[in-house]
């Protein structure tokens, strides 16, 4: 696990200056994208860590405006990168966030309102991990991936065998989920 500090609150910044928007709409749609700025996975396919379809540039920081802010459960943290996806035929982008409490949420990209929410098995307890990297619970830590041709997102979630709420390290298990968006 990397020792990156993660914010307890999820805050997303979006910029809509007219110049940047004009540039955005001029971009050709990428193969994996439904909308030019959708972000369907952690990085590009070779995992270089960079997706070229965004206007997120340090030079533009001064023009960013906070669009919305969401605060969820106590001790809920978001280790995975939020993904951005536009439902086929949808009016605007949705943001999918997954947490250390094994909660998946689909948020409206324009307002931050919760469109859909699903709680998976109780999360694995950090106290069973004997490792100090992640506090409280270890639910979903890695970034999911979205397959835009099927509207399905794939993710790993850590909990215990048989969906138990505990049981020690020996009973810990990861499950790989395939979850339909946006209904979850
Ligand atoms: C994906 O979602 C859209 C919009 O809800 C729907 O029309 C389409 O049939 C879905 N695709 C699949 C493969 O289920």
Automatic annotation (TrEMBL):
Keyword Signal tagged: yes
InterPro entries referenced in this protein's UniProt entry, alphabetically: Quinoprotein_ADH-like_sf (IPR011047)
Key words, A-Z: Signal
Signal peptide: 1-22
Official protein name in the record: Uncharacterized protein
């Amino acid at each position: 696990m990397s020792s990156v500090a993660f914010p307890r609150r999820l805050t997303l910044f979006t910029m809509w200056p007219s110049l940047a928007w004009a540039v955005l709409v001029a971009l050709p749609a990428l193969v994996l994208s439904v909308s030019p700025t959708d972000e369907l996975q952690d990085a590009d396919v070779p995992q270089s860590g960079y997706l070229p379809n965004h206007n997120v540039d340090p030079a533009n920081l001064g023009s960013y405006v906070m669009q919305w802010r969401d605060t969820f459960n106590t001790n809920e943290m978001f280790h995975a990168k939020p993904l951005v996806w536009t439902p086929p035929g949808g009016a605007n982008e949705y943001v999918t966030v997954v947490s250390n409490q094994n909660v998946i949420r689909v948020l409206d990209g324009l307002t931050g309102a919760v469109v859909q929410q699903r709680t998976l098995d109780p999360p694995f307890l950090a106290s069973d991990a004997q490792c100090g990297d992640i506090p409280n619970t270890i639910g979903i830590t890695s970034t999911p991936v979205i397959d835009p041709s099927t509207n399905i997102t794939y993710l790993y979630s850590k909990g215990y065998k048989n969906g138990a709420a505990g049981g020690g390290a020996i009973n810990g298990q990861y499950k790989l989920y395939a979850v339909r968006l946006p209904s979850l």
